[in-house]
């Protein structure tokens, strides 16, 4: 079985992140009474990372496995913080 190319894997990761995180949510849904870290700033940061990688892929830049792993780790950490802040449901 062949492994996917890194650009295909990164594109799939970007799509998963877009589907999982509420980038378009209003501030009132993101900023609640509980504030461990700043969900609004974390979402903005992750959205910038996703947009940056999308632009790189559009320019035919080839990410390496380290790039994919790094973005995956960031998204997992931010996901955990958003769960603690009750912005995302715990699974």
Number of domains: 1
Count of individual beta strands: 0
* Structure annotation, total helices: 4
Give the uncertain stretches in residue-range form.
Answer: none
* Share of helix, binned: 55-70%
Biggest β-sheet strands, sense, barrel: none
Strand content: under 5%
Tell me the structural class. mainly alpha
What gross morphology would you assign? Answer: elongated
- Average of pLDDT: 89
Q: Compute the gyration radius: what is it? A: 14 Å
> Could you spell the SSE succession in H and E letters?
HHHH
Separation of termini? Answer: 31 Å
Main attributes?
65% helix, 91 residues, elongated
What topology does this entry show?
Layout lengths: L5 H15 L6 H4 L8 H20 L6 H20 L7
Helix pairs in contact: 1-3, 1-4, 3-4
Structural account:
With 91 residues, the protein is mainly alpha-helical. The chain has one domain. The chain has four helices and no strands. Helix 1 (6-20) packs antiparallel against helix 3 (39-58) and helix 3 (39-58) runs antiparallel to helix 4. The longest helix is centred in the middle third of the chain and has 20 residues, at 39-58. The termini are far apart.
């Amino acid at each position: 079985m062949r492994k996917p190319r890194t650009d295909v894997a990164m594109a799939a990761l970007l799509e998963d992140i877009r589907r999982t995180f509420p980038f378009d949510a209003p501030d009132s849904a993101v900023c609640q009474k509980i504030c461990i870290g700043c969900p609004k700033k974390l979402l903005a940061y992750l959205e910038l990372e996703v947009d940056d990688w999308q632009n790189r892929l559009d320019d035919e830049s080839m990410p390496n496995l380290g790039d994919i792993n790094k973005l995956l780790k960031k998204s997992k950490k931010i996901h955990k913080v958003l769960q603690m802040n009750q912005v995302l449901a715990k699974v």
